[in-house]
């Protein structure tokens, strides 16, 4: 390890908490996107479902992109 590298346990409590909260938010976004992709008919999704499943694994960007750009209008 270099002098600049720290283990998770060596980080300040606030930094550790931020990392944990960020990870939880990422998992919630990804889970919601994957659940929506699975339940939504392919006709209501812009592009192929497998593409959006793969993109949902890109941190934050993928799930948010799916919800913003991947779903067709619901007619409201």
From TrEMBL:
The keyword Cell membrane applies. This is Cardiolipin synthase N-terminal domain-containing protein. Pfam families: PLDc_N. The keyword Nuclease does not apply. GO terms for cellular component: plasma membrane. Keywords: Cell membrane, Membrane, Transmembrane, Transmembrane helix. Residues 33-71 form the Cardiolipin synthase N-terminal domain. It is found in: Cell membrane. It is a multi-pass membrane protein. The chain crosses the membrane at residues 51-69.
């Amino acid at each position: 390890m270099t002098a600049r590298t720290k283990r998770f346990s060596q980080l300040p409590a606030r930094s550790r908490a931020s990392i944990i909260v960020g990870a939880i938010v990422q998992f919630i976004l990804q889970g919601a996107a994957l659940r929506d992709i699975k339940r939504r008919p392919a006709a209501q999704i812009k592009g192929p479902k497998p593409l959006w499943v793969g993109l949902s694994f890109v941190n934050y960007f993928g799930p948010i992109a799916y919800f913003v750009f991947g779903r067709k209008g619901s007619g409201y």
